[in-house]
Amino acid sequence: MQQRIAVYDDLLRALQVMGTIDDKTPKNRVLYAMWLLETKQLCLGFDLQQECSFVNITEVLLQVFENDIEIYWMAKGFHVLSEEIREEMGMLLDLTETILEKEDNGIYIHLKQCDILPGLPLAKWYSSFFSGVLSELALIRIWDKICGRSNKIVIFVFIEIMRTLRRRVLRCMDLKSLLECIDSIKDEQETADMIVNKAIELWQQNKGHKEYNIPKQLN
Fold first, then answer.
1. Rab-GAP TBC domain location, by residue (predicted)?
2. Beta partners for 134?
3. Could you give the angle at the alpha carbon of 158 between the alpha carbons of 153 and 159, nearest 5°?
4. What CA–CA distance (Å, rounded) separates 10 from 12?
5. pLDDT 10s digits, 136-177
6. Mean of the pLDDT values across residues 38-66?
7. pLDDT higher for 57 or 217?
8. Which residues, 6+ apart, have CB-to-CB distance to 46 below 8 Å?
């Protein structure tokens, strides 16, 4: 723990001396800058305000935990998991269509006919573990599964969001209206808990199916 504190303090002090951050810099952006510096990705004039999964993940952790040093280390760990999901993204997106078609053909057909499916920010949602999409307390249960390398659970979260909002989804005729529909529930704890419960249950029902397994890449 002492080593983590020393590293954290050194990074924070360096950013302050460099003028990269100040007292007005949001905490999630401070932690993002620290990670960029530690990984040698911080360059002169870097835009800390750009959107990225590290910032989104950190924002959730800040809402749930209090120790900034532990939050920084957790964020780094989750970023590694986020990169693993990015590497599997092509297969995850293919599986999303396959499983959605099986679990709710009506929603699948509607999204295809309205040409909504290709425009959905699934890569962003999956790689940030639905940060900013569902309430933080509900998300932690999904993140626990991801820590166990059950990356495929993100598919079932998306499917259960669609099924929970089914009536409203079927009234959405374009991408904008669907995104607004999904955005309307981000602060609804009860809805998020229901989605997560159903997602975990559906994931458990399907995790043994070989046709839904993500093949491991050969070294």
1. 1-150
2. 131
3. 95
4. 5
5. 889 999 999 999 989 999 999 999 999 999 999 999 999 999
6. 87
7. 57
8. 20, 36
